[in-house]
Amino acid sequence: MTKACIREREAYSRLSEDYRPKRPIVRNIILAFVVGGLICVVGQFFLDYLVSRKLAPTQAQAMTSSIMVFLGAFLTGIGVYDKLGRLAGMGAALPITGFANSVVSPAMEFKREGFVLGVSAKMFQVAGPVIVYGSLVSVLVSILRLYIFK
């Protein structure tokens, strides 16, 4: 590139910077915190309820995770969770309900391509690497723990 072209590109960048909308960072952080916290409050409600019904704590935790995954998938299916994700960002993506959303969204998007090449092939497009690397790291940490902390 010539120097004139580079200067012109830099000038355009500076000019467009003035017209680019500013991101409301503080508002985004607060919304992520509040929505993520509310999702956790819902999960804690289910956990407390299940424990109060005399379910063993480990069973109640597993059941709570299942309920939260179901809620995330259900809300994605009716179109609510995507709006929540746009509003709250990582506050909606990080809890386990966000994992359900990352599985259900591609499945819904590609359902018109059929169940095998559409839904099944694309369902774990986002969540697949998380599952693979999460499993790999858990095995490696378990091996390290076995040999280091005998």
From TrEMBL:
Key words of the record: Membrane, Transmembrane, Transmembrane helix
Keyword Membrane on entry: yes
InterPro entries: Spore_V_AC (IPR014203), SpoVA (IPR005562)
Pfam families hit by this protein: SpoVAC_SpoVAEB
TM ranges: 29-47, 59-80, 87-104, 124-148
NCBIfam families from the UniProt entry: spore_V_AC
Name of this protein: Stage V sporulation protein AC
